[in-house]
Design goal:
The protein has helices at residues 2-22, 33-41, 44-49, 111-122; strands spanning 56-57, 64-65, 79-80, 84-85, 92-93, 107-108. It is of the alpha+beta class and 131 residues long.
């Protein structure tokens, strides 16, 4: 009976932790004036026609966002999903090739893969309970 209670408690705890990590983090910074002006000029028809939102990612780490901006860790400009960026300096391009600054091959920024690897790192698998 004690083992059953422990198993149920462990499953409940894992469900709570996974639900909290899946919830989006609240935004702490306020919108700049230019962002609010841009949002006001967007037509509702174009917003409802496309449900897919643009994603942006840091060229050096797993940070992703739905807003343009800078990576808090590396202070680099976020690059739009499925564009190419230099992994060393962070310069971006729409086409594959070499970086103009240091000659490094440009790597494609894949925000979905970055999010999945960040989730795996944050939530390692729970080991099974042995009898």
């Amino acid at each position: 009976m004690k083992k059953l209670i422990l198993v149920i408690a462990a499953i409940g705890f894992a469900a709570i932790v996974s639900a909290q990590s899946a919830a989006p983090a609240p935004a702490t910074a306020s919108k700049p004036a230019s962002a609010s002006a841009t949002a006001a000029t967007t037509t509702p028809a174009s917003a409802s026609a496309s449900h897919a939102q643009a994603w942006y990612g840091c060229p050096k780490c797993n940070f992703t966002s739905q807003k343009e901006g800078k990576c808090a860790t590396h202070n680099l400009a976020l690059v739009k999903d499925h564009s190419y960026a230099c992994p060393k300096c962070g310069k971006s391009s729409d086409a594959a090739g070499k970086c103009t600054a240091d000659g490094t091959d440009l790597a494609m920024v894949d925000c979905k893969a970055k999010m999945m690897s960040a989730r795996k790192a944050a939530n390692p698998p729970v080991p099974a309970i042995k009898n």
